[in-house]
Amino acid sequence: MHIIVAIAFILILGNLGSTLYFMTDKSRSKRMVWSLAARVDFSITLFLFILIAYRLG
Predict the structure, then answer these.
(1) 55-to-1, 10, 49, 52 alpha-carbon distances in Å
(2) Is the pTM for the entire model greater than 0.85?
């Protein structure tokens, strides 16, 4: 459980870093929007995983 949560946090922080990189990019691509959406998805998935694990004991 601890390993999965740590990996999820690393993924979320890595995605946040890539969003910061895409934010400074001068092109008009939607990579920043997709990166932020992926971070939100990772965060929701992590929250649900922790909630289910708590309910199961």
Answers:
(1) 13, 24, 10, 5
(2) no
